[in-house]
Amino acid sequence: IHERLQHYEESKPAPVMDSAAVLAQDLSEQLKIKSENGDIKELAKLLENPHVKSLLSVHDTVAQKRYDPELPPLPEYLNIEESSVKIIRLVKNKEPLGATIRRDDETGAIFVARIMRGGAADRSGRLIHSGDEVKEVNGIPVDDKKPEDIIRILAQSQGAITFKVVPGLKEDASIREPKVFLRALFDYDPSNDSAIPCKEAGLRFKKGSILQIMSQEDATWWQAKLDGDANPRAGLIPSKQFQESRRFALRQPAATLPLQRTLSRRPSSEDRSSILSRSFTTSSSLTHNCPKGERFSSSCFPAYPLLSCPLRRCGAQSCLCQGPGPSGVGMNELKRKLLISDPQHFGVTIPHTSRPKKNQESDGVEYHFISKHLFEADIHNNKFVEYGEYKGNYYGTSLDTLRGVLTKKKVCLLDVQPHAIKLLRTAEFKPFVVFVKPPKMERLRETRKNAKIISSKDDKGSARPFTEEDFQEMLNTAEMMESQYGHLFEKVIVNDDLTTAFSELQSALKRVETGTHWVPVSWTHS
Ligand SMILES: Nc1ncnc2c1ncn2[C@@H]1O[C@H](COP(=O)(O)OP(=O)(O)OP(=O)(O)O)[C@@H](O)[C@H]1O
């Protein structure tokens, strides 16, 4: 009946009047006076029929929207506990009820542990709440039952289910909770999670999925939905705090990320003519403006969040950050291709240096040449996205040069270290961070057969063919970087075949610039 009536909910039939019973009564009185006609007699008889009278009375009740049952007053002898019992009838079809239960170890009482947002119980007008004590299900007392038995009764029931509950006192705070969106930074499968209170209620998701957090009422188990999922019912996921505490407990002593990429890069103008390869961090004497505790070292790994900060959909982004990628993986090659593909649309920054200008160089072309004193003052005033020192000279990318590219309405292509990405993750720069990673060893050997790497080990920085060690180092570094900084990357591109990787990068950028995508809420405030 419930399902059939739902059909009428859409057409919303409106009553012509809400006092049909009174009208029928009046009519019936008048018809009695003129009872000689056969038809009139029949109509009068019909209107006197108790079933018709009841039908019209029900019609009027519905038309007047007087649904609330008129309950008899509570008997005075009822004790407080009995007076707080509620009988609830829910209509359930094949989908799960959307509630989990728990048993109090001391008293054996069964409680509603949580109501899954958007589930059948939740949609039935929030009649049941977490914290309610369940006394009976379909007339069967549950105090001697295990939660599994009750779940079985519930799973087998269809149609109306009757609960007798003692309402809990706790207010359902989650109704007022704002719904937040987060990006998952790990894969989760509830069937492999021994800690989850109910595996069936768990939500499976993949790293990178956007989760709509429906309830954070429980500090350990949040309720979430996958963004865009038509199923209205939320599932359980470990809360941010809980997942991070578990990961912390399991964490291995952190390995040291090889300084290879940071230390192996060479001053650009000395080694490369291309304006795109303005890397300047080169020797082991390098110093970064990396905040304390965020260098590539074992003792100070950043706390890697497993769920991102709150997100919101937003339009185009202004700055493409590549990196940190392993040396030789092809970042400059991809950057060069992008710039050639649309020089009006993409731009790069020109670095600053404190080294003396060479004869063939011009200020503002290869570098902005400034004095060591001024460079140090700019470091002090946090004017650099990142900087380094090589052979006693400073090299760095300033925030102002980045702003200069952006004011020309260009997308700035930057190749920076993780700490710099963090610095740039603001409403002003809105970076889209791409991590370029190498393919498997066999494919590296195949694709890089004729490619040359610019050697960082010899000081002249000459180009030479890739060696097995280069490939291995590239793979190891990529793995380390992904595991430590994966949460900063919006897109991971495997640079196997260069043309394929390039078109993947191009279409990702196009999507970002033309469509909407998820960015931290804080970026959308300004
Ligand atoms: N997919 C690919 N297939 C074949 N060769 C490639 C591919 N990608 C890049 N290369 C070649 O590998 C070499 C190194 O590439 P590139 O200079 O772009 O790396 P990089 O990541 O910028 O290195 P570094 O950070 O050390 O400057 C170049 O000769 C480039 O042409």
Automatic annotation (TrEMBL):
Alphabetized SMART domains for the sequence: GuKc, L27, PDZ, SH3
Pfam family, one: PDZ
Classification via PANTHER family: MEMBRANE-ASSOCIATED GUANYLATE KINASE MAGUK (PTHR23122)
Boundaries of every PDZ domain copy: 87-169
Domain Guanylate kinase-like: start-end pairs: 325-510
Protein name: MAGUK p55 scaffold protein 7a
Gene3D superfamilies, alphabetized: 2.30.42.10, L27 domain (1.10.287.650), P-loop containing nucleotide triphosphate hydrolases (3.40.50.300), SH3 Domains (2.30.30.40)
Residue ranges annotated for the L27 domain, each copy included: 13-70
Ranges of residues in domain SH3: 177-247
Family: Belongs to the MAGUK family.
Keywords, in A-Z order: SH3 domain
InterPro entries (UniProt xref): GK/Ca_channel_bsu (IPR008145), Guanylate_kin-like_dom (IPR008144), Guanylate_kinase_CS (IPR020590), L27_C (IPR014775), L27_dom (IPR004172), L27_dom_sf (IPR036892), MAGUK (IPR050716), P-loop_NTPase (IPR027417)
